[in-house]
Amino acid sequence: MSRPGVLVVFLALLTVPATSQTGGKWQFQTRMQVGSEYDSNIFESTRFPVEAMAARGLLKTSASRMLAQGKLALGWSAGMQLYPAWTAENKLNHLLSAAWGRALSRWWSISLKANAQAKLFLRAPYDHVWTWTAAGSTFRLPAGLRLKVQAASARLDYRASDRFDFLERSLVADLGRRFARRWQAGVGVEQGRLEFLRPAYFAGENGVRIIRAAQQQDTRRTFFLRLAYSGSRVIQIRLELQSNDSNSEGYSWQRRRLYLVAAQPLATSWLLRIALMGQRKRYTPTDLAIPLIELDLERSESNYLVIDLTYDRSRQFSWLVRLALYNNEAAFRGFYYSKRQLLFGSEYRF
Amino acid sequence: MKALLRIPCALAVLIFCSTFISAQTPELRTVAARFDSLEQIVLQHDGRVAALSARADSLAAIIADHKTAGRGVLQDRALEAALHRADVLAEELQAAEAARDSAQQEIRRMAVRVLRYLAVRTRTLEHELRQAEKRGDQALVPHLRRSLAAAGALRRRAEKWLQSENAAILLAPVHIAPGDSPGLLEEKADLLMDQADGLRRKARLLQQQVQQAEAEQRLHSRLQAFVEDVQLFDPLSESVGREEGAGQESFSPDMLDRAANKTGAGENLLFSDELLLSVGLAELTGQAREEGLQSARARVQQMLFLADSLSARARDVLAKARAQQQEER
To answer: Which of A240, A248, B51, B230 could pair with A216 in a Cys bridge, judged by C-beta atoms 3.0 to 4.6 Å apart?
Structure first.
């Protein structure tokens, strides 16, 4: 999506909160967040970290409406990070989302979902758009089981280069069941096919990389388990075993991944929220004769822990402190950079 | 020859289908008929209560006229007769209201049973329809579709009763007779006060459950907002539930019945079973549940209003008892 196009869409959406009070059947929610953020490594370097302060803002608007033919939900999130000392890092993040769902019977429902995220650098040529669309169907089975099947398509598109762009098509099946009133567990499999615009490589003699005639194609298989608790606190855990087979040498890997998100009210007005992702990736082959640079940061390994402590002054207004620790794989395979972010901010929901 | 053979085959299929139909459908018809008859009973009670209320209103107007008219033997007698009729009418009205409330309670219980039954029956019908469509059974398919439509209509009617804000709150009727002694009046006032306290306790309990459900909903919303933040500002844009699109607009999983699934593992157990049972929502589908929650809030208000009304009546009766005691002294 072009930058003017994105701006037009977002400006149009800006009018939504203004009309929210007269929404009729539409239900609107808006969330505004502003804060100051310390970043210990803004260029995500493995050896020479540069720290800086940034101003950060977020505006999220969502709207939903019950229709005769199901329910429609729309959302727009606009994020902004401004680094006064390092303007090349200034960027805008936009996430547009839409979902429609309809129950065809008590046992069968269908849904369509779409997301588009645009990351726009104000003074650097790294703009990119990521889109995701999915069509799903959920079935209620005997014994309280629920089966969800979903076909999805994702696409990454850098404005300045095709080298990292890809298209992914995937199918996922997820079988879940609620138990002990407040728990829910599920198991699922996912099969995905990624097609890159860049050529595939193989390692020739003397460490020379030879370009294949074909483009890079990866096949990804995922097996996952999930567990969720919902009550006075909310916990969601997902464990994944994933394998990626590529026709380009050095891009095949296996990994185990855990992610967890949780929310726990503490004392009155205090809320603790945690997001954790940890993964172990093993490349096959483990050693490469040639140095492999994976510049596609969209797909690199990510380990993080984000802890958020919020104090609610009222139902609408909160103060928040958020600490984020990252240990991510860098542009060079097997190298990692660390990063700490500390945010002090406030949030207004209306 | 083949054409000739088709006729008996078609007849055989028809006979088989008609047997099948007759074996399967009466159950649904029976349930619907029972529900119909209960609805008729409730409507009859409603009609009777409405008629008695109208009579009571007109009698109240007559009594008011008599009271404002000048005093005299004839007027006094007319007033006395009207008051007597009013007493009789009040008792009839109370009895009719109790019967109507009881019938409403019964139909609500029946509605829960009907929804449970339909949950199973609809699945069977859908299965049979799929099979019939697969076989290309033109005789059976329309019938099964009609049955499914009838099941849907019955489900909506049952849900309507469960969502009804006028759901009965059963109370033991307390009649105050003109000849009641002060002691008896005090006992009746205690009984009214007990009923008011009981209602307030129930209202508090239901209120707590509604608040818990709302708090849980808010907690999910706050967690989802946090996940969206992490995704939006993650340096790698590879975040929790990225594949599922954690930042996307989605529906609470209780909407599974009505629509789609929530992102990630977000199964929102919005309603505890106790709440669902207490407000009779256990069998309701997604949208109906949201409406049911609203109905529960209205029910809390209704119970509190009724409790206040009972307390006020108890105070009046107690005051009357005290006044009689004073007179006796």
So the answer is: A248
Range with the lowest mean pLDDT among A299-313, B37-51, B258-272?
Answer: B258-272
DSSP state for residue B70 in the 8-state scheme: P
pLDDT recorded at residue A170: 92
Q: Exposed, middle or buried, A9 (CB in 10 Å: 0-12/13-18/19+)? A: middle
H/E segment holding residue A80: strand A70-82
- Any idea which residue has 């099946």 for tokens? A173
Residue A185: CB atoms within 10 A of its CB come to 17
- Torsional sign, CA B178, B180, B183, B188: negative
Task: Say which of A105, A265, A297 has its CB closest to residue B236.
Answer: A297
Measuring CA to CA, how many Å separate B229 from each of A15, A45, B200? 22, 23, 43
Lowest mean pLDDT among A300-314, B81-95, B99-113, B251-265: B251-265
Question: Residue A315's closest chain B neighbor by CA?
Answer: B218
Contact of A31 with chain B, judged by CB distance below 8 Å, is answered with yes
Q: How far is CA B329 from CA B189, B322, B323, B324, B326, in A?
A: 21, 11, 10, 9, 5
Q: How far, in Å, CA of A143 to CA of B318, rounded?
A: 56
Is residue A81 within 8 Å of A54, Cβ to Cβ?
yes
Mutate: best of A38, A56, A234, partner B, most B CBs <10 A: A234
Q: B215 phi and psi, to 5 degrees?
A: -65, -40
* Sequence-separated (6 or more) residues with CB below 8 Å from residue A125: A159, A160
How far apart, in Å, are the Cα atoms of B302 and each of A86, B50, B200, B220? 61, 20, 10, 29
Amino acid present at A25: K
- Chains A, B: CB contacts under 8 A, how many? 205
Tokens in use for B142? 């329309």
CA B19, B21, B22: angle at the middle one, nearest 5? Answer: 65
> Which helix (H) or strand (E) element contains residue B293?
helix B286-328
- CA A213 to the chain's CA centroid: 33
Q: Which residues contact A152 (CB under 8 A, 6 or more apart)?
A: A132, A133, A134, A135, A168, A169, A170, A171, A172, B243
Q: What is chain A's mean pLDDT, rounded?
A: 82
Q: What are phi and psi of B242, to 5 degrees?
A: -55, -45
Contact B235 A326 (CB under 8 A): yes
Query: Are B240 and A237 a contacting pair at CB < 8 A?
Result: no
Let me know: does B49 contact B100? Beta carbons within 8 Å: yes
Sign of the four-CA dihedral B247, B249, B255, B261:
negative
Question: Is A131 touching B (CB cutoff 8 A)?
Answer: no
pLDDT of residue A300: 60
ipTM over 0.90? The verdict is no
Maximum alpha-carbon separation in chain B: 109
Between helix B2-24 and helix B140-163 the angle, nearest 10°, is 20
